[in-house]
Amino acid sequence: MAKDEINAFLGAGTNYQGKLFFEGSVRIDGNFTGEIKSEGTLIVGKEAKVHGQILVGQLILSGFLEGDIQAAKKVVIHKTGNLQGSMNAPCLVIEEGAVLEGQVCMNQSQAGVKVEKEAPKKNEKLLEKTKMAIAEQHPDAQDNGAEKTGS
After folding, report:
1. Fewer CB within 10 A of the terminal residue: the chain, N end or C end?
2. Whose CA is closest to 43, among 30, 84, 86?
3. Cα 92–chain centre separation
4. Residue 38 CB: number of other CB atoms within 10 A?
5. Which residues of 43-79 are buried (b: 16+ CB within 10 A; e: fewer)?
6. Where are the beta strands (DSSP E) in 62-143?
7. Rounded to an integer, what is the distance from CA 14 to the centroid of its chain?
8. SS3 state at 6
9. Distance separating alpha carbons of residues 8 and 24, to the nearest angstrom
């Protein structure tokens, strides 16, 4: 199967409600309401109306989409595209004339997960260095928060 080959097609005049899971690429030109999950590419055609939760590798939007969108790689909104809702993707391409209303969050999805896992270790090391620096500057200070005793 070619990389750009479309695996499934919901044509104009088609109404579908439910969950869609797929591999590769799917094009929707009709109406869809529900949940879409894939590591592949979702193509929303010019006449399409999609409502729901979208979690895909890549989204190419030329029609109307309302909901929560998460794309692992990229979101492309063509000049006829209209996105209403929240969108999270590391890369966003918007053509002049496209409509985007809602919340946009751009982060490196895979790198973000890695950073979150490593952040506590880095913070612990930074905290330890800070405590050591304070102890060197103030030898009488105790880093456990207890009051000083004796004179």
Report:
1. C
2. 30
3. 11
4. 20
5. bbbebbbbbbebbbbbbbbbbbbbbebbbbebbbbbe
6. 64-77, 82-88, 92-94, 99-105
7. 28
8. strand
9. 9
Q: Which residue has the higher pLDDT, 66 or 12?
A: 66
Tokens of 132: 């050591």
pLDDT at 112 over 70: no
C-alpha span between 69 and 89 (Å, rounded): 8
- Counting beta carbons within 10 angstroms of the beta carbon of residue 83, is it exposed (0 to 12), middle (13 to 18) or buried (19 or more)? buried
66: its two tokens: 């309302």
Give me the percent of the chain exceeding a pLDDT of 90. Answer: 59
Structure tokens belonging to residue 124:
């612990």
In whole angstroms, give the CA distance from residue 26 to residue 96.
25
Residue labelled with tokens 């004179």: 151
Tokens 């088609």, residue located: 14
Helices then strands, counting H and E runs in the chain, come out as 1, 10
